[in-house]
Specification:
CATH topology: OB fold (Dihydrolipoamide Acetyltransferase, E2P)
CATH superfamily: Nucleic acid-binding proteins
Number of helices: 1
Strand content: 35-45%
Largest sheet: 5 strands, mixed, barrel
């Protein structure tokens, strides 16, 4: 009976599927364990067929305070961590070449 419950819990976590991921650039890391990531996506205008850039900023949790402004990072969706934070830092894709 207990083993069935344990396997059911394991199945439900795998059934949840992959978490949503976004790649963006860190714009601020001045807060403690929090970074601001700007994610830019491109779409095509329906009428004029011109490529348009849309950008949005996300607050993400950075446990080790390792991301710096200018870094390209991958963030994944998580449970709400605060009023604004719904994302977690997964990895730093590329470091910034700017000298601090």
């Amino acid at each position: 009976m207990a083993s069935e419950a344990a396997t059911g819990a394991a199945e439900s976590s795998s059934d949840r599927g992959a978490r949503q991921q976004l790649v963006g650039i860190v714009t601020s890391s001045k807060m403690h364990k929090t970074i601001v990531v700007k994610v830019t996506r491109t779409t095509q205008h329906r009428k004029y067929l011109r490529v348009i850039r849309h950008s949005k900023k996300y607050y993400a949790h950075d446990e080790q305070n390792e991301a710096r402004p200018g870094d390209t990072v991958r963030i994944v969706a998580s449970r709400p961590l605060s009023r604004l934070k719904r994302w977690r830092l997964a990895e730093i894709v590329a470091r910034s070449t700017r000298v601090a």
